[in-house]
Amino acid sequence: MTSFHGLLAYPITPLTPDDAPDLDALAGVVGRAVRAGVDGVVVLASSGAGVTFTPDERDTVVRAAVGSASAVGATAGSPRVPVHVAVSGTSTRDVVAHARAARDGGADGLVLAPFSYLPLDEEEVVAVFEAVASAVDLPVCYYNRSVQTAYDVTPDALARLARTATVSAVKDPASTPARPTGRVATLRAATEGLGVSVGLSGDAAIVGGAEAADAWHTGLAALVPEEYVALRRARSAGTDPGTQVATWLRDLTAALASLRPVSGFHALANLIGVPTAPPRGPSLPVPPDGVARLREVMSRRPGRSNAG
Length: 308
Prior knowledge:
The chain contains 13 helices and eight strands. With 308 residues, it is an alpha/beta fold. α1 (23-36) runs parallel beside α2 and α4 (122-135) packs parallel to α6 (155-164).
């Protein structure tokens, strides 16, 4: 089974006041998520603003996340939860360099959204993944950012990548304009027998009851892992996660949906006690009224005292 199964948490990369990665804060976020029961961690993806960091900064982030997950596993006497690394870049050369560095830093797998200054076609997309497979022997999750990249991976292309590259998973948007129903079933059918995990992203759709999938990929799960783990386990077992938890997560995702994505996560991190500056520009900090909306929702967090 690929390690891209279950609940995969995508943490922010906390920043110090002087705009450097706060490795202690990152280790705390990763450790808490692992202790709460997430099935994997993915650093330096869109939630972690990976494309804004230098190679040296990326390396420190990967090693801090792997070290934190390893420490929790050692304390619990259990295997380390997989740590995956997003390796997107504006050129194939950059992507391959990121992939090699992630491997050397201890990554268990890679997450790749292929993009360029101009939209790629299918042959160019396939070539990027095959270049990674030639350079690094790690499983890869195809991060399908169809709206942002103007390329929506087809079932046939995903099957092709599973055969010719090391693609063993897909992170597909749970809800996009004109997305047909039954998408998960279609991708599963196209990759039957190839060992591909079909996962979904998009907190509002996931929390709201998106179709069943092999994995949930979510940045919010890294910040409120206890509630997200409870929801995932209940949905997987076909049981009720509890109205209070489900309602609160829906309210939180609704509040975040009104904010810029990465900026909203940084503001939420501060409210739960994770110190971080706003994300690097061009992202802007959440304005005070947005912080107030998040604070109000956090004050209703089930089983917790008022936050912030």
